[in-house]
């Protein structure tokens, strides 16, 4: 079971949520409410606790989402790392 995020991490999550979906902002130039997506690839199916982006339902768990088909998602919108860097440079 994951431990509860500390106050600093909660503040980072709120900032990310107020930014909205990274894909919608970067590709379409619009704001969409989002869920926090922790970048995958930390090994053995673990998520990266330090790197995360906001993704709307469609781009997170929906038909176009990273959890639906990671390869197709990254081919279409860029790698998770590229999206993370874009978010960090534009937040």
Topology:
Elements: H1 7-19, H2 22-28, E1 35-40, E2 47-55, H3 57-60, H4 70-77, H5 80-90
Antiparallel strand pairs: 1-2
What do these coordinates show?
- This protein has helices at 7-19, 22-28, 57-60, 70-77, 80-90; strands spanning 35-40, 47-55.
- The chain is an alpha+beta fold.
- It has a single domain, classed as Herpes Virus-1 (2-Layer Sandwich).
- A two-stranded antiparallel ribbon has the order 1-2.
- A hairpin with a 6-residue loop joins strand 1 and strand 2 (47-55).
- The termini are far apart.
- The mean pLDDT is 89.
Q: Enumerate how many helices there are, as a single number.
A: 5
CATH top level assignment: Alpha Beta
Q: How many domains comprise the coordinates?
A: 1
- Whole-number radius of gyration? 13 Å
Key structural traits:
91 residues; alpha+beta; Herpes Virus-1; two-stranded antiparallel ribbon; 5 helices; 47% helix; globular
Give a concise summary.
This protein has a two-stranded antiparallel ribbon. The protein is built from 5 helices and 2 strands; from the N terminus they run H-H-E-E-H-H-H.
């Amino acid at each position: 079971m994951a431990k509860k995020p500390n106050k600093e991490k909660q503040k980072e999550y709120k900032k990310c949520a107020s930014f909205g979906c990274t894909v919608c902002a970067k590709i379409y130039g619009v704001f969409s409410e989002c869920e926090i997506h922790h970048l995958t690839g930390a090994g053995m199916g673990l998520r990266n606790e330090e790197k995360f982006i906001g993704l709307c339902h469609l781009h997170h768990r929906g038909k176009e989402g990273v959890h639906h088909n990671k390869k197709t998602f990254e081919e279409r919108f860029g790698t998770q790392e590229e999206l993370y860097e874009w978010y960090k440079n534009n937040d």
